[in-house]
């Protein structure tokens, strides 16, 4: 039964956050500072998620093949490679490092 309570509390929390967002006055959202922040927030969250998934293993920091793949993807992005090539470079490097034993 505690699982359903957690689901209900989560659903109510999500609804409350959505309602709070709708209740914000329009003039507050249209400020230039808020617009810049709203444009940068998804990039920051995606970067944090990428770093957490790359360098974390449970409760410890780790440096393994995922970091090499991320580095390869970063190099491909700097070279302005197409997105599919960026993903392919990350996959190939990560698999190669794991195959070698890294």
List keywords for this structure.
mainly alpha, two-stranded antiparallel ribbon, flat
Structural write-up:
This protein has five helices and two strands. It is flat. A two-stranded antiparallel ribbon has the order 1-2. The protein has 102 residues and is mainly α. The model has no long low-confidence stretch (mean pLDDT 93). The longest helix is centred in the middle third of the chain and has 24 residues, at 32-55.
What's the number of helices?
5
Unreliable stretches, pLDDT < 50, 5 or more residues? Answer: none
How large is the share of residues in beta strands? under 5%
Radius of gyration: 20 Å
Report the order of strands and helices.
HHHEEHH
User: Which term fits the overall shape?
Assistant: flat
Major sheet attributes: 2 strands, antiparallel
Query: How many angstroms separate the termini?
Result: 44 Å
Oligomer: single chain
Helix vs. strand class: mainly alpha
The tally of strands reads 2
What percent of residues adopt helix (DSSP H or I)? over 70%
Strand line-up in the sheet with most strands: 1-2
Mean pLDDT: 93
């Amino acid at each position: 039964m505690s699982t359903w309570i957690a689901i209900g509390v989560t659903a109510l929390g999500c609804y409350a956050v959505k309602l709070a967002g709708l209740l914000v006055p329009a003039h507050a959202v249209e400020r230039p500072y808020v617009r810049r922040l709203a444009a940068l927030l998804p990039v920051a969250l995606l970067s944090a998620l990428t770093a957490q998934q790359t360098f974390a293993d449970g409760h410890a920091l780790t440096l393994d093949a995922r970091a090499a793949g991320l580095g390869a993807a970063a190099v491909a992005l700097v070279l302005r490679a197409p997105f599919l090539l960026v993903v392919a470079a990350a996959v190939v490097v990560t698999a190669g490092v794991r195959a070698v034993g890294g």
